[in-house]
Amino acid sequence: MLHAIVLLPFLLAAALPLLGKLLRGVHPGWIALAAPALMLLFFLTRLAEISDGGAITAAARWIPSLGINLELKLDGLGMLFALLIAGIGVLVVLYSIFYLDHRKEAAARFYVCLLLFMGAMLGVVLSDHLIVLYGFWELTSITSFLLIAFWHQREASLAGAMKSLLITAFGGLSMLAGFLLLGLAGGSWRISELAGSLDALKSSPLLVPAMLLIALGVFTKSAQFPFHIWLPDAMEAPTPVSAYLHSATMVKAGLYLAARLLPVFAGEAVWFVLLTVSGLATLLYGSFRAVKQTDLKSLLAYSTISQLGLVLTLLGLASAYPPGAEAKLAAYGSAAAAAALLHLANHAAFKGALFMAAGIVDHETGTRDIRHLGGLMRLMPVTFAVSLAASLSMAGVPPFGGFISKELFFGSALAAIRSGGWSAAAVLIPIVAWTASAFTFLYSAVFVWRTFGGSGSTEREKQPHEASPGLLLPPLLLAGAALLLGVMPGLITSGVLQPALAAVYPGAPESYAKVSLWHGWTPELLMTFGVFAAGALLFLAAPKLPLLHRAARTPFSWNGLYSGGLKGLDRASGKLTSLYLTGSMRHYAGYVVLFFIVALSAAVWLSGGFRISLHGMAPVTIYEGIAVGALIASALAVPFAQSRMMAILLTGTVGYLVVLFFVLFRAPDLALTQMIVETVSVALFLLCFYHLPALKKERTAVKTKVINGIIAAASGIVVTVLALGAFSGRSFPSIAEYYLKNSYELAGGKNVVNVILVDFRGFDTMLEIVVLGIASYAIYGLIRLKWPHEAAAEG
Amino acid sequence: MELLLALAVGTLFAVGVYMILARSLLRVILGLSLLTHSVHLLLLTMSGLKAGAPPLLGGQAESYVDPLPQALILTSIVISFGVTSLYLVLAYKTYKKLGTDDTEQLRGEADE
Prior knowledge:
The complex is a heterodimer of chains A (795) and B (112). Chain A is mainly alpha-helical and 795 residues long. Helix content of chain A is 73%, strand content 2%. In chain A, strands 1-2 form a two-stranded antiparallel sheet. In chain A, α4 (76-99) runs parallel beside α17 (327-365), α17 packs antiparallel against α21 (469-487) and α19 packs across α21. Chain A starts with a helix and ends with a helix. With 112 residues, chain B is mostly helical. Chain B has a single domain, classed as Helix Hairpins. Chain B has helices spanning 2-20, 25-46, 67-98. The longest helix of chain B is centred in the last third of the chain and has 32 residues, at 67-98. Chain B starts with a helix and ends in a 14-residue tail after the last helix. The chains are: A mainly alpha (795), B mainly alpha (112).
């Protein structure tokens, strides 16, 4: 059943283009709506079973020989994410039906990509197998790439899609490496089994590299500093995509992974430091940058970055205390984990609503620039109400859900100090948390006030009015959820949050997922009041703030580093390539010979088994001595020949001297063949000679000549040494005895060389005849056949 | 004797390599045939140059030289002959079509 539900969006995506053609007048979104609706229905019916602490598993064979199977598992954590994916999926599909005009846009393509993404995302959160999880993970990257570049005629969409793909695929590949190490260290690919083999895992040297690599995957997918740069650029996607992928689902895949592996990595200092430091840096940086944005969606993108950092910080704090720690510490750990999960749900609700509201504003006014917006409060009251509710939740104002999760966040940050045992740096955690919250309050206020408050500009493209009910319903529902999560948090805590917490932090007492709006006078509450006061002050001082920001602006930016790095890489690889790919045949021949020299001499040197013994050499007679002298002399004379005739004749001389050697060393057949071949070759050379240009004096610089000479001499030395070595190192007798003995008995021939050629090793001869045949056909073709345009020119 | 022949093999090889690095196509082809000679002699040297009768069984000799490398070299001679003649015709055709036999001028376009 689990497989069917994961497969459902993929099947529907495959069928959608066809169905869309059959039902021509219908918006394809209505067809696509079936997938998330069925998914939601399925998960809601299974909710009770999961709430009782159960889990649904399913396995199908995929590559059993490699131990890779489609193993799915639906537990509390998977259920929380699955509900988010299916629930917000329904709302986003509904919203996009009214957002995209299927007569003007390629709506079918949009829904195919969206459905593929939905299935991939569901696969990520339901996979119990590391490799399967990775497969779905990359599928989310690819579908996200397709969705960001939905308007592919726009330059910015393509750039944003490319950037997000490069960064998330980089992280994904690192993560795959991390998964492989983790699987090797833990001895299992199954995530649910990894937590059971902690002893083997913790003592493995592969654990730290695995954590670092997996953290890279988490950081890039969840847009953590400094890998956050793709998320603001991904805002070129249609708004439903931004609402779904880049706020509620895909960017939480990294958080999901961090939560999923918490039982495995908890208690590891490296993991805690990675998550907490990155989370805090992202939280502060994102909230600070969000204040500066003038585009609604960019503001929301940086806000998303910041909130993701918040959740990651909480997961980091939770991982500081392993589930088996003493009661007080485990309480801190499970409280942080509960806060992370609660904020995850809160953020999905309010950020989805905010993106949809921003999309409506864009839709109705034609701009998303807050410098041109304002005064929409009376014109678009429902959108305003939605934005206000969601922003209040984002800022952490009661009675919205954001308030509760922010209180829990402060509580966990303070617990970092209370628990002791850490360095003084722990004090920084609540300070950063508090500062970032003040900025969060500020940009939430900016979002609402600059869009809806004030008088607004009069020069608008369109006369804005309230959007259609279909467009308003999804954000209204999400804003309602944001309110409900605050007023009645019990709605999800016992049913959804508690089992999810049990999956993230095994052994957490039931009470840690039980929260309420009012929990007495605590330091956290005072901190929250401080946030409101500071945020309000900052907002009132806002007119002076742009100056402050401009002063703080540095020439350095992460985007600059990214694009500069990309350009530099491009240029450097181009330079490197043109450095050695010169197009000159001589250079390539030089590389080959140099490699030959280096590889052979290194092999000879390193193996150390090289020795030259002069023992067993044949004696030198005077004739042979003279022949060798002549050979060497004529060979050396070849390069100095100034006319082509001279060069050809000298080469011929070398050939005939080789014939002489064949005679001296008792190889009559060789001498015969070489004689004929040499004669024919020289004749051929002379034939070509007539058609070839006069041999020009080599116009090569002396330096090049010297280099070539050195290369040539080195290769000669290497070959000499090898020849001697091969002769001296001979360790077993030749098989020639067999041929000599059996040539007559078995083959009936007395010329042993000929018998070898046509009898013992006849295949060689047959193929050499083929070579000659091919060569002659090629020569015939070269000379006789003409290119079509040549033939045409000749008439 | 093998020492001397090894020197000759090395010299032939060095000269062959030097010619291959030249600019004129004709020189390159001549260099290739020098390399071929060098390798043939190398094969012969490596099998040992001990005295003995030619591998013709009619002579009733005490010992014969190794016939196997001779068979290999014979095959190689024929193949290198085929290749060399193809190269020559190719060089001829190149010169006819492109008007040069200078390998530096036969370089590809910069934006290939």
